[in-house]
Amino acid sequence: MNFTILWFVLLFCGSISAQDDGTATETQLCHPDMCDLIKEFAAMKEKLGAVETRLEDSETRLKNSENQIQELRNNETTKVIFSAATGGGEKHIGPFNTDITLVYRKVITNIGNAYNQFTGIFVAPVAGVYQFSIFYHTGAGPKAMLKLFKNNQLIAMTHHLQPETSGNGGNAVFLQLQQGDQVYVQLAENTRIWGTDYHTTFSGLLVTQM
Questions:
Q1: In a domain, 20, yes or no
Q2: Which residues constitute the signal peptide according to the record (predicted)?
């Protein structure tokens, strides 16, 4: 609509007027008042362009802020914390003639349900940095040895090599995992640990999502 008005103004300003003395005529491009009006329209158009630019910048910043807020909300909603004990009553687990995956059946907490109490395997639900810890108790007799694996890769170990005495041990690591990576504990062949609801545990948590 602004362009239509400006067009009519230009047509009007292009009209021809004669001088009053009758001796000569001249073509005036526009009446002085109309010239002022055109200048005002031009200035207004320039200001509107600047306002539109600022609005576009503001919309871009607002969109970026909304994306950042949504990302923070997504990070906050992903919580992974678990802790489990071997359970099964007070008895030794092992020794066996081969390495076995240790199943921690007594779930203490399992926020996010990433730990499977039937397989003993933790599966990362999201990519990020996780912390894991293992602790055990063993009585006098065969030595004790636990191994922490990421997928099929040995990451950490803890052991007790003095069979004449009971002992305790543990280890802890930070791991960068991708979604679907598996973490689990194996009991080494020809070793044993004391299985109860309280002594031998496997724990982990999501430290930061990536």
A1: no
A2: 1-18
Q: How far is CA 164 from CA 139, 140, 143, 160, in A?
A: 9, 5, 9, 10
Query: pLDDT tens-digit profile of 156-189?
Result: 999 888 767 788 999 999 999 999 999 999 999 9
- pLDDT tens digit sequence for 141-158: 788 999 999 999 999 999
For residue 6, the enclosing domain spans: 2-15+27-76
Closest by CA to 206, choosing from 90, 135, 136, 110, is 110
Q: Are residues 62 and 121 in the same domain?
A: no
Tell me whether residue 22 is in a domain.
no
Give the separation between CA 40 and CA 51, rounded to whole angstroms: 16
CATH of the domain at 112: 2.60.120.40
Q: Are residues 62 and 84 in the same domain?
A: no
Q: Are residues 112 and 194 in the same domain?
A: yes
Could you tell me if 148 and 188 lie in one domain? Answer: yes
